[in-house]
Amino acid sequence: MQSNRQLICIMITAALVIAGAHAALAQTTIKVGNILPLSGPSASVGLQNKQAQDMAIQEINDAGGIKALGGAKIQMLYADSESKPEKGVAEAERFINTEKVNILTGAWNSAVSYPVSAVAERYGIPFLVPVSVADKITEQGFKYVFRIAAKDSWWTRDQFAFLKDMEKEFNTKIATVAFVYENGDWGKGFAEGWKKLAQQGGYKVVLDEPYPSTATDLSPVVQKIKRANPDVLFLTSNAADAILLTNTMAEYKVKPKAIIASGGGHADPSFMKATGKNARYLFDIVEWETDVNKPGADKTNEKFKKLYGYNLAGESVDAYVAMYVLADALERAKSTDPKAIRDALAATKLTTGPAMIVGYDAIEFDASGQNKHAALVMIQINDIGKGMERITVWPKVSRRANYKPVFPTP
Amino acid sequence: MTPSLARGLPLVVLALVAFGLPLAVTSATYLHILILLFLYAYLTTSWNLVGGFAGVLPLGHAAFVGIGAYTSTILSLQYGVSPWIGMFVGGLLSSLVGVIIGLPTFKMRGAYFALATIAFAEGIRVMFENIDYLGPLQINGPRGLQIPPLKTGLVHFMFADKEPYYYIILVMLAAVLALTWAISRSKLGYYLVAGGEEPEAAQSLGINVAHAKLAAMAMSSFLTALAGTFWAQFTLYIHPKSVMSLDISFEIAFIALIGGRGSIAGPVLGALLLRPVSDFSRIYFGDTLPGLHLIIFGVVLILVMLYQPRGLQEPLTRLYRRAMGRLIGDRGAPG
Amino acid sequence: MKVLEIKKVRRYFGGIKAVENFSLDVAEGAIVGLIGPNGAGKSTLFNCVAGVFPPTSGEIVFLGERTAGLKPWDLCRRGLARTFQIVKPFAARSVLYNVMVGAFAGTARRSEAERRALEVLQRLRMEHLSHARAGNLTIADRKRLEIARALATRPKLLLLDEVMAGLRPTEVDEMVAIIKGLRDSGMTIFVIEHIMRAIMALSDRIAVLQFGSKIAEGTPQEIARDERVIKAYLGEDYGAA
Amino acid sequence: MLFIIEDTINGILMGSIYGLAALGLTVIFGVLKVINFAHGSLLMVGMYVAYWAVLLTGMHPYLSLVVVVPVMFVFGYLLQDILIKPIFKSEKEVREPITVIIVTTGVWYILDNLALLIFGPQYRNIQDNPLRGKMLEIGDMMVSVPKLWGFFTALATALVIYLFLRKTRMGRAVRATSLDRDAASLQGINQYRIYNIAFGMGTAVAGVAGVTLVPFYNVFPTVGVLFDIKCFIIVVLGGLGSIGGALLGGMIIGVIESVGPQFMTATWTEAIVYALFLAFLFLKPSGLFGVKYDW
């Protein structure tokens, strides 16, 4: 098998690289420790984050590194958490104590980010979190934790704000909603937010259904949705179950007036390929979309697509942007001292540069370390002549020119 | 020097080295790896009481780790009870669950027993994932519980440095090894071995095999739960998928089988081999070739099983005896 | 005094009548033999007596106590020990270890158990094998180990299930002497045996089982003369063994 | 109440596919008396083989059986011959060598992570295949066509295995070995070759299960883990080693999984499956069709 030979080549190269890497690196590098789920059930998202960050680091280093530090290069070290908290903690310890990293980033899984944030805080090493969205992460009173992405209460808030706007714009009354979500830290967090917002918005909840994301058959859940017959279906799913749900719903001809997903599995590059036309008209909330109306965004995406063969997604953009936030902080800190980097991060007010492919205009952290400008967009999956694509529809200012959202689903 | 003293000497040296190690290993990274190594050695030694001596293959011990971790964490978070006390409450609770699991399953043999324990542990995990509140107790379902690192100190079972954790788990390991040694020489130990090897013969010799196994299970689940508390206090975050995962149950069994189950040294030897394989292969290959570390782990498992199916303890003991024999001219006690 | 009373015991497996209406008394200090062709139900009867499974009907009284509901380990603690026709040593362990398992029935102390075990091994002239691995023993030694283990529980009644099968003639003689010695020390013995020479030399009384029913009972001499026994079973075997 | 019928049908169909997956496990257990922990991974390998066969040639998904079955049979045969046979040889007197569990778990780790290295973590499925998304509409009821195919394939596979075991010489040798390996080898049967064949068969059946999943399911490196525990539960429920038991056990699990969520959440249904399984284990440890258990 061809791939086997390739594998051996890769292994040999890797061994050489590892052997060489330790010796070759000069003093003037800034070490960043990055903990991601690179194997196990979340390997897919881990890889996307890694590739986005690889690209960012490459760009920053090629552009002359950190000028305030004499052109120091950023060196990214990756570690595999396997989505397990104890492995994440072990790797954080290793990064800090053995690799002497100046900063930590990661860890995608909220379950890993919690304990890692405690480790970072204890050692006083800044922990820049691109995407773990659980509110709690920046609500622990920690000084060294910074998050780029919006927290989950903002996601759910925007999903409902979007729904209200659509009701008005299309003059359609939405009365009932259904919540279907993976039974994990993430899904539960979203469901909690939804319940509150539904009550405030005067919607009737006709279904509140957690499901195990290891389920092998989701048609019972789809049946349940069908019978509950909600106007709007809210989903929070990982990739495998997002694909399964979408395809099964198409099979059973379940068509609520709108389906509003929560990124994650629905934003996974595999999702579009594996659902095809079944995902048509689905709304999804994301941090970023390829058609965002920002200079440089499409160029960055094209470059990424050329390198790795798929589009940038919201999570990978957060990961990408995080590296520029870091570079900016380093320029201002003029030091590799973690405390100085932390203070510089806290004082971040980034409004220019490649990081500004994000949908909003500045990156600034509030006292808790949360990026206070982090905003979300809603996209709709639709085919307007060039195959299925993700089209930004909300907020209205960001909506793709000449696109009229399809609401309710025909 | 008498031969028995000479045979005990290496143990003393080993203990001294273990206690002095933090002086040499100043890197918190390696200390961390060592702590996890000892933790797994402890867990496996506890498992060994059932899985080794009683001759069955339990594959659900993660449930006890989880029960221990949850009990002490809930008690300390919601009632301000010191984890040290919670640790023993968790142990007792876990013991009870162990006996309940043991009652029906010990009647089964071989494959059935292994599968039933898997199902039990998975069932308990799924329960925890479904329960947010159990009466007044906040379990928090799949989101788990986080222990804020606010109060440090011995009373709170929480420390800023690694050394205290290292010594705690080392003492725990030493204690459980001593206990295992004592049990292996006691009536219960003999009864477990007999019941495991030839249940009918054992029964005719006055042994209520099921009782002996239940006693072992009670102890084993008690001890395993103590490690659960350690785990929770060490990582400061628990959720069902971490502290109750099948991976833990499996890893414990692997360590025992690789080291040599049913022996006292086996679990420690197994942990000494497997933990570093798992840690270092993840560290060196985890980033460049995702999954390669688990492939290496799998290969090591297979190789050891193919060439030393009774575990590494056997050849190593032989080697050790021979070396001791050379040194002091003693042929050692036959086993 | 009767150590064991077997009263009208039946044992059926589904439709198969393994033991049918069997009664027998074993007096204290006696050696009682049980003979019969293969498949006559001897081992089934032993298993009923030892508590492995209950009789379908009838009752068994051991030392004046009905044994219904008592398990093998309960009976062992009351003073009943047995050996298995197919030996079941704890193969991976030493001979001493094996015997100590039995000795622990009477004591919880390791040193005492070891003392008792060594005593038994001495009595059976196998102390030189104390540290041998049980799985490596010869068949004769395994049979003796089987007895040693049972003896270490210090039984009042010892059930021996074909402990001489597969032994050489000199070994058989040795075994007969050992068993007689046990009786002389006050133990009651109930023995299944195929080797006629041995059972005749050994037993005070013999019961004969055929197709699950007792066809004769008496002293060895009576049995040797019994028409039915000779016809059913003894004729061709007596001299041959 | 129509939905109950609809869900029951779905449960039976999906359950028969679980049963098919478990069938491979039960064939291996029946003969070798060991649990193959790599079974889910073999299913995963089967799915990848079918996936690539269909994707590269555009053939009908079920036509890929022509490729999958022989490839998987040889794969299983060699796996047993190279990795597991030595253990049987070195532990002759052991009836259920526990070390085999470890070896097969090693195989599980290796296969899953090799798939990750070679194919990446992406979720794949084949959008244009003639079965995808097809539904049979009977009045208001809907029945998934690819699952229906899976159902008939499961029945057919069980029948083929049954006939093989009963009617062919090789099958009789396999059965003899499964009943008493020593007696069989005395009869001149090479037990190790029989083990190879049984393992190959079990693996091929896992491949068949993979083929039935490919038209409507996702393929990814850790997909086998999702089916692993399910298979364990099913074989114990049905009686280890019983062909009919595996199918029936699968259907029972499938029906509970499918009907349960109509009365409680899907997550609680998962818990109920375990609870029922354990309750069953207490009441009838030998399983539905198990011979009196002395495994």
Q: Secondary-structure map with pairings?
A:
The complex is a heterotetramer of chains A (410), B (335), C (241) and D (295).
Chain A (H helix, E strand, L loop, with lengths): L1 H23 L4 E8 L6 H20 L10 E8 L4 H13 L5 E4 L3 H14 L3 E3 L15 E3 L4 H19 L5 E7 L2 H17 L2 E8 L7 H10 L3 E5 L2 H13 L6 E4 L7 H7 L7 E4 L10 H12 L5 H20 L4 H9 L2 E2 L12 E2 L12 E7 L4 E7 L16
Parallel strand pairs in A: 1-2, 1-3, 3-4, 4-5, 6-7, 6-8, 8-9, 9-10
Antiparallel strand pairs in A: 10-13, 11-12, 13-14
Helix pairs in contact in A: 2-11, 3-4, 5-6, 8-9, 11-12
Chain C lengths: L1 E12 L2 E12 L3 E5 L6 H9 L6 E6 L2 E2 L5 H6 L2 E3 L12 H9 L6 H14 L15 H14 L4 E5 L7 H16 L3 E5 L3 H7 L2 E6 L2 E6 L1 H6 L1 H14 L1
Parallel strand pairs in C: 3-8, 3-9, 6-7, 7-8
Antiparallel strand pairs in C: 1-2, 1-4, 4-5, 9-10
Helix pairs in contact in C: 3-4, 3-5, 4-5
Chain D lengths: L1 H31 L6 H19 L7 H26 L7 H22 L15 E4 L2 E4 H23 L1 H11 L1 H6 L4 H23 L9 H16 L4 H17 L6 H18 L12
Antiparallel strand pairs in D: 1-2
Helix pairs in contact in D: 1-5, 1-8, 1-9, 1-10, 2-3, 2-4, 2-8, 2-9, 3-8, 5-6, 5-8, 6-8, 9-10
Describe the structure.
- The complex is a heterotetramer of chains A (410), B (335), C (241) and D (295).
- Chain A is of the alpha/beta class.
- Chain A folds into two domains: 22-150 and 294-364, Response regulator (Rossmann fold); 153-286 and 376-398, 3-Layer(aba) Sandwich (Rossmann fold).
- In chain A, 43% of the residues lie in helices and 18% in strands.
- In chain A, helix 2 (43-62) runs parallel beside helix 11 and helix 3 runs parallel beside helix 4.
- The longest helix of chain A is centred in the first third of the chain and has 23 residues, at 2-24.
- Chain C is 39% helix and 26% strand.
- Chain C has helices spanning 42-50, 72-77, 95-103, 110-123, 139-152, 169-184, 196-202, 220-225, 227-240; strands spanning 2-13, 16-27, 31-35, 57-62, 65-66, 80-82, 157-161, 188-192, 205-210, 213-218.
- In chain C, strand 9 and strand 10 form a beta hairpin.
- The radius of gyration of chain C is 18 Å and the shape is globular.
- The model of chain C has no long low-confidence stretch (mean pLDDT 89).
- Chain D has 295 residues and is mostly helical.
- Chain D has one domain (2-283): ABC transporter involved in vitamin B12 uptake, BtuC (Orthogonal Bundle), CATH 1.10.3470.
- Chain D has helices at 2-32, 39-57, 65-90, 98-119, 145-167, 169-179, 181-186, 191-213, 223-238, 243-259, 266-283, and strands at residues 135-138, 141-144.
- In chain D, strand 1 and strand 2 form a beta hairpin.
- The longest helix of chain D has 31 residues, at 2-32.
- The model of chain D has no long low-confidence stretch (mean pLDDT 88).
- The interface between B and C is medium-sized, with 21 and 30 residues.
